[in-house]
Structure formats: structure tokens, C-alpha cells
Write a structure and sequence with these properties.
The complex is a heterodimer of chains A (140) and B (118). Chain A has 140 residues and is α/β, with parallel strands linked by helices. Chain A contains four helices and six strands; from the N terminus they run ββαβαβαβαβ. The termini of chain A are close together. In chain B, 25% of the residues lie in helices and 21% in strands. Classes of the chains: A alpha/beta (140), B alpha/beta (118). Chain B: Pfam families: DsrE.
Chain lengths: 140, 118
């Protein structure tokens, strides 16, 4: 199964007290690499993000790489009876003010036109790498 | 920056996965994360010598493994059991790559702060 791969980092260089548990306040990075059209990875990521926020954690970034960059292709027109997971995720990130980034190189390679709605932010892998510092990474 | 282990699991040419995970590795290394790269399962096929005479239209991305030293990626482990299972235990690995037991791989994963599975 190429499902969720979760690893909790053991050191937290900038501990901030969690208002509820008194423990360190975790910041998460989410990495998505699978197509939003082909499986449940976007739905799982969304579910995770909602649960994390509900518990008082913060999400530093949601980064779309490889096939996941298709989410930024606004010209995709889904049949009305199919759930639009990409749009749902974008809406959620906008409401919660979470940085929703996609790899511009991976997107251009797939012919994904630059998103102009402002929901998705074009970024490089270096930005993912820099935002990754001091967060816990969860991969979908 | 952080200690990140990257687990390579994909063969070189079935999908674009191996190529794009190499880009990810170089980007992470470029911002000074300390990386350990682990080749396991079918990913060991990425380390076979390239047939430069092949007429197949494939990008020889494996040449970029030679950049690892430049990017100060010092820990490149290749799962010895995966090599043996594929009849490749005699394979001469690229410079800087070492065959590793499952115990060594476990120890590497245990000391990492983040793990990315490619």
C-alpha cells in the first residue's frame, strides 16, 4: 500500500507550549504526490488537516509534487457527480490560511497552466525544503 | 537543518517517480538538510550500469548520482537483501554508495528526524 507514511520527529528545536496538553505545539508539513483524480490521497490529507487543526496543531504547508500538481490545473472540468477534491482542499486552505504550494517545475512538465485564482501558490522544491524545517512531515 | 532519510523504492524507468525523487533529494540537500538516501526493493535497479548504446528514449538521470558528493550527501545505503533477492549482490555500486544490512537501515531511520518515501 502506498498510503500514509507518518514519521514524528523526536526533537523540536523551538518548543512552543500546546494550549491544551501543555506539550510542544506541533507544526505539520503535508506532502502530496498522487493525482487528485485517481485515488483518496487528497481526501485523506484533508481529513488529517482538519483533525490536526481541531486538536490545536498548525499546518505550515501543504505541498503538491509529482502527480498531485494536477490539482492546480483549473481547466479540469469534472462531471458534477464526482467530488472535486482539489477544489475542496483549496477552499479549506484559503479558509484556514494554510499555504497551499505546488511545484512549478512538476506542473509545467505536465502542461498545467499557472493557477490565477490565488488558491495555489507556485513554488520550488527549495521552498518545500525550507518550510520543512522544524515541522513534522506527513506524506500522502 | 534536519536529518532526513529518503527511502527510494521505485525502479528507474517504470514511471517518472525515480527521476522526480532525485530532484527532491537535490533540492533538500541544497538547503543544507543532512540526507541519508536508502535504496531498497526495486529501487536497486536504479544503480545498474547505464547502457549508453541503448536506442530507448530514456533520460539517463542516474548520472546525477555523481552529484551527491558535491551536495554533501554522504550516506547512501543500498539494501543488501534487496540486491541479493534480485541476483545483484555482485553489483559494483556507484562511488559513495554502500551495501547495508537491514539493521543498519533501521538505525539510519531511527536517527532521522523526517522520513520521505519515494
Amino acid at each position: 500500500m502506498r498510503g500514509i507514511f507518518l514519521f514524528i520527529n523526536k526533537q523540536h528545536p523551538t518548543p512552543v507550549t500546546h494550549f491544551f496538553t501543555g506539550g510542544p505545539l506541533t507544526r505539520f508539513s503535508l506532502l502530496l504526490t498522487q493525482s487528485p483524480l485517481a485515488n483518496q490521497s487528497f481526501a485523506s490529507a484533508l481529513q488529517f488537516a482538519k483533525a490536526a487543526l481541531a486538536q490545536g496543531f498548525t499546518i505550515e504547508q501543504i505541498f503538491l509534487y509529482e502527480e498531485a500538481v494536477l490539482a492546480a490545473a483549473t481547466a479540469i472540468d469534472l462531471p458534477t457527480d464526482e467530488p472535486n477534491l482539489a477544489a475542496t482542499l483549496a477552499q479549506f486552505c484559503q479558509q484556514q490560511q494554510i499555504a497551499l504550494l505546488y511545484c512549478i517545475t512538476a506542473a509545467e512538465k505536465r502542461g498545467v497552466q499557472a493557477d490565477t485564482s490565488g488558491h495555489y501558490i507556485a513554488a520550488g522544491l527549495a521552498e518545500f525544503a525550507m518550510r520543512l524545517a522544524n515541522t513534522k512531515l506527513v506524506q500522502f | 537543518m534536519q536529518r532526513i532519510a529518503i527511502i527510494q523504492t521505485q525502479p528507474p524507468f517504470n514511471q517518472g517517480k525515480a527521476r522526480e525523487s532525485l530532484d527532491l533529494i537535490l533540492a533538500l540537500a541544497a538547503v543544507d538538510h543532512q540526507l541519508s538516501i536508502i535504496f531498497t526493493g526495486d529501487a536497486v535497479y536504479q544503480l545498474l550500469p547505464l547502457n549508453t548504446q541503448s536506442s530507448q528514449p530514456l533520460k539517463a538521470f542516474q548520472k546525477s548520482f555523481g552529484l551527491f558528493a558535491l551536495y554533501e550527501i554522504e550516506h547512501c545505503l543500498v539494501c543488501a537483501a534487496s540486491l541479493t533477492a534480485r541476483g545483484l549482490s555482485g553489483l559494483s555500486l556507484p562511488e559513495g554508495f554502500t551495501a547495508a544490512s537491514q539493521a543498519e537501515i533501521k538505525a539510519t531511520l531511527a536517527s532521522a528526524q523526517q522520513i520521505i518515501r519515494c
